[in-house]
């Protein structure tokens, strides 16, 4: 199951910078993860400074 980004997202972009498959993009004021592209590697979870990524 792909990771998700909750409402704590501050749109800093740290998650998108580290995603090896470019599954994260900015949309509607916060970043979103494309579930079809996400490989569940967890790099975004470690990179998020506010703990907004779950899964």
TrEMBL record:
<dbReference type="InterPro" id="IPR017896">
    <property type="entry name" value="4Fe4S_Fe-S-bd"/>
</dbReference>
<keyword id="KW-0479">Metal-binding</keyword>
<keyword id="KW-0408">Iron</keyword>
<feature type="domain" description="4Fe-4S ferredoxin-type">
    <location>
        <begin position="1"/>
        <end position="28"/>
    </location>
</feature>
<dbReference type="InterPro" id="IPR000813">
    <property type="entry name" value="7Fe_ferredoxin"/>
</dbReference>
<dbReference type="GO" id="GO:0009055">
    <property type="term" value="F:electron transfer activity"/>
</dbReference>
<protein>
    <recommendedName>
        <fullName>Ferredoxin</fullName>
    </recommendedName>
</protein>
<dbReference type="GO" id="GO:0005737">
    <property type="term" value="C:cytoplasm"/>
</dbReference>
<feature type="domain" description="4Fe-4S ferredoxin-type">
    <location>
        <begin position="29"/>
        <end position="55"/>
    </location>
</feature>
<dbReference type="GO" id="GO:0051539">
    <property type="term" value="F:4 iron, 4 sulfur cluster binding"/>
</dbReference>
<comment type="function">
    <text>Ferredoxins are iron-sulfur proteins that transfer electrons in a wide variety of metabolic reactions.</text>
</comment>
<keyword id="KW-0004">4Fe-4S</keyword>
<dbReference type="InterPro" id="IPR017900">
    <property type="entry name" value="4Fe4S_Fe_S_CS"/>
</dbReference>
<dbReference type="Pfam" id="PF13187">
    <property type="entry name" value="Fer4_9"/>
</dbReference>
<dbReference type="GO" id="GO:0046872">
    <property type="term" value="F:metal ion binding"/>
</dbReference>
<keyword id="KW-0411">Iron-sulfur</keyword>
<keyword id="KW-0249">Electron transport</keyword>
<dbReference type="InterPro" id="IPR050157">
    <property type="entry name" value="PSI_iron-sulfur_center"/>
</dbReference>
<keyword id="KW-0813">Transport</keyword>
